[in-house]
Specification:
alpha/beta, Rossmann fold, 2 domains, 6-stranded parallel beta sheet
Length: 393
């Protein structure tokens, strides 16, 4: 049977119940200051509904990759403060994840009150889906709600282990909305355009293999495009190329051709001698020896934009160049504008892609901004997400 919805859970009643909510509050932090609170805002919908229903909410999330060590710079304490501002209510914070202190903090909650636990990845058992840690979470919960789409592809203690130990469980509104919106990529109105960027073919090989025969047009930018160009025998200068992935790139291109699909690579490039923010750059049709490609050129951007205009469904994940440097962000920004201007149903996932949309204030012109990069890539491949499967009866 499919997982229970938040509507169904609330209809059953949650007043006075301890509801353990796994959210994705993994936001960029710099010296305790939040760089982008998009994920925190996205989590507030389900929280408001549970609190209004009288639930005693125990909220858990990870932040960064502390690898089982307590790292003060990755504490969720600043998140608690920002969450309180957004919800306009006090958010209690517990510096522990499980154990007597966490139990006492949970027991102290009244109806309609919220407690945020410390970073679950401070516990070494979290990423191992440790049984003892999952049991510790379950001891805090009468009800379990997973609203963390960004980690739904991970079988961790707070996403899978605890869900198996709590009989009342449900999918949060954000998790359910993500799955519904991403279904349009698996079952698209055609033509389907998939725009993929990023650094390495090895990071996205599985999704490239899945989308090559599925997408009507697969447009590849970012550094991983240079592995594909090298596989074609084209010059790539000092651009990032994965020599051990050339055969993989050829196989992906052959799969697209066999299925009658188009695979597009950059036909012009922004090239520099050194990767520095103020490095002199020029546009070249190919990348000559001694130079490296750092962004797609205007001709490529125009080609990708034309495909976006013709598409009925668009999926975009990953930047088209070294987006973090303003001088080399023009290709990514051009793609962002093209996706926003298209009449297609659009889904954008991945941190840099969403950041480009937000930076250009285009969010209200995109069909769906996904909060999960890796999870969205696995879902569009047709994979079962462990965090979602754990909610099913």
């Amino acid at each position: 049977m499919a997982s229970k919805t938040l509507d169904e859970l609330l209809a059953e009643g949650v007043r006075g119940q301890r509801v353990f909510v796994r959210a994705d509050l993994n936001v960029p932090l710099d010296g305790g200051r939040i760089g982008d609170d998009t994920r925190i805002r996205a989590a507030t919908g389900s929280l408001r509904r549970l609190l209004a229903g009288g639930a005693r909410v125990i909220l858990a999330s990870h932040l960064g990759r502390p690898k089982g060590e307590r790292k003060p710079e990755l504490s969720l304490a600043p998140i608690a403060e920002r969450l309180g501002e957004l919800l306009e209510r006090k958010v209690a914070f517990c510096p522990e994840v499980v154990g007597p202190l966490a139990q006492a903090a949970a027991d102290a909650l009244g109806d309609g009150e919220l407690l945020l636990l410390e970073n679950v990845r401070f516990e070494p058992g979290e990423t191992r889906n440790d049984d003892a840690l999952a049991k510790g979470f379950a001891e805090l919960a009468d009800v379990y709600v997973n609203d963390a789409f960004g980690t739904a592809h991970r079988a961790h203690a707070s996403t899978v282990g605890v869900a198996r130990l709590v009989s009342r469980r449900a999918a949060g509104d954000l998790l359910r909305a993500e799955l519904e919106h991403l279904k349009v990529v698996r079952e698209p109105e055609r033509p389907l355009l998939c725009l993929l960027g990023g650094a390495k073919v090895s990071d996205k090989l599985a999704v490239l293999e899945a989308l090559a025969p599925h997408a009507d047009v697969l447009a590849i930018g970012g550094a991983m495009a240079y592995t594909f160009l090298a596989a074609r025998g084209e010059p790539t200068g000092t651009s990032l190329v994965e020599p051990d992935r050339l055969d993989d790139a050829r196989r992906v291109e052959e799969a697209a051709a066999k299925a009658g699909r188009k695979l597009l690579l950059p036909t012009d490039h922004v090239v520099v001698e050194k990767l520095e923010p103020d490095a002199p750059s020029e546009i070249r049709a190919q990348v000559p020896e001694g130079l490296m490609g750092v962004d797609i050129g205007p001709e490529t951007a125009a080609t990708f934009a034309a495909e976006a205009a013709a598409a009925r469904t668009i999926f975009w994940n990953g930047p088209m160049g070294v987006f973090e440097m303003d001088a080399f962000a023009k290709g990514t920004e051009a793609v962002a504008n093209a996706v926003a201007s298209s009449a297609a149903r659009s889904v954008v996932g991945g941190g840099d892609s969403v950041a480009a949309i937000n930076r250009l204030a285009l969010g209200d012109r995109i069909g769906h901004l996904s909060t999960g990069g890796g999870a969205s890539l696995e879902f569009v491949q047709g994979k079962t997400l462990p965090g979602v499967a754990a909610l099913e009866d």
